[in-house]
Specification:
By secondary structure, the chain is of the alpha+beta class. It has three helices and 23 strands. Strand 2 and strand 3 form a beta hairpin.
């Protein structure tokens, strides 16, 4: 870094001045005086050939793509027990929490006994019906030499027997149907009072201090996340065309106040458009904390072996881009044309020559 005291003038080249009339223009070198006491600090850089690289940074988050949120679907029932802690790993079918369902369990057991008793009673009644029908058949129709009167008597007896049992059996069947429907309701209520994990994963959220509180349909009890399906997720599809299957890019994430840099690769690319987001998986074996914010660094444009200067040497005006050339202790303003603007370097396509020195004002 150099501190230069300017004792002369700053030569402004490329300033446009209108001629007295008409549309003609001419270029003048217009010196702008600088006070001898004014100090301008700047560094210098040589115009040279090199690489100009433009990167973009995409923000994302390490997110499981398969999660489930567990709520009790009933209100105002006492939450008696929570069986897991946050960060526990659970398998599908694990009981997470339950309400006070002792009374429901008792009702279910009582009703199961009643159903079993009614089923036995119905079966016995149906057996009695078949016995009475068989007895009537033997009495009136069970021999070879039977008269028409015997046949008629049998049909009448048979009809009477069926009629006498019809109402009784129907009442039993209706009672059984009602009890089974009630049992189904009780079992549903019992299921609603117990929360089970339906996926294998980690308890990534657990409501605090909920034991001995009362349930609410709107209260989230727990979130289970399948960390085996976790990916770095970037919302939106900006720059999606720059990624190909199997390509590798650099990403960084923070954990415990430290920043880690890893390689990642695109995945689940067939889902990108439908989900309107991009998925990336880590190529590093180190575990990443769920919810970790990440930055993905993508090179979107690059030119090698081109004339370039540091990007902070370029200035803009309504006339275009310009630089300050250091020449014989003076700064000369010169308009330039630029190509791609990279992160640190900018391509120069006109106005400068290799080996010239540009100033970068502090």
């Amino acid at each position: 870094m150099k501190n230069r005291r300017l004792l002369t003038a700053v030569l402004m080249t490329g300033m446009m001045a209108m001629a007295g009339c008409g549309n003609s223009e001419m270029i003048e070198n217009t010196p702008v005086l600088v006070s001898e006491d004014e100090e301008i600090s700047y560094s210098t850089a040589e115009v040279n050939t090199g690489s100009v690289v433009k990167n973009v940074t995409l923000s994302g988050e390490y997110t499981p793509t398969e999660t489930e949120s567990l709520y009790f679907p009933v209100n105002n029932r006492l939450i008696t027990k929570v069986y897991v802690d946050k960060n526990d790993y659970v398998s599908a079918g694990t009981l997470i929490a339950e309400l006070d369902v002792a009374d429901i369990e008792e009702k279910i057991e009582d009703l199961k006994y009643e159903i079993e008793h009614t089923e036995l009673e119905l079966a016995h009644t149906q057996e009695l019906k078949e016995f009475d029908l068989s007895d009537a058949f033997i009495m009136y129709d069970g021999y070879s030499k039977k008269s028409d009167d015997d046949k008629k008597a049998y049909e009448e007896k048979k009809s009477d027997i069926e009629a006498s049992y019809r109402t009784l059996i129907r009442n039993m069947e209706d009672d059984l149907k009602i009890k089974k429907a009630r049992l189904s309701d009780y079992r549903k209520e019992l299921d609603e009072g117990r929360l089970y994990a339906s996926i294998t994963g980690q308890v990534t959220y657990l409501a605090s201090r909920i034991e001995k509180s009362y349930s609410s349909e709107s209260t989230l009890i727990a979130t289970i996340s399948d960390l085996e399906t976790s990916y770095f997720l970037v919302k939106g599809l900006d720059y999606a065309e720059f990624f190909t299957d199997g390509s590798e890019v650099t990403a960084s994430y923070k954990d415990g106040g430290k920043t880690y840099e890893i390689l990642i690769t695109p995945t689940q690319m067939d889902k990108w458009e439908a989900d309107e987001c991009m998925y990336f998986e880590s190529l590093d074996e180190s575990p990443v904390k769920n919810g970790a914010a990440c930055n993905i660094y993508l090179e979107v444009e690059r030119k090698d072996d081109v004339l370039c200067v540091p990007s902070n040497a370029i200035h803009s005006s309504d006339k275009g881009e310009f630089v300050y050339i250091v020449k014989d202790g003076m700064l000369e303003m010169r308009f330039v044309t630029v190509g791609i603007v990279g992160d640190t370097m900018t391509e120069i396509t006109g106005g400068l020559k290799k080996g010239e020195i540009v100033a970068i004002r502090k």
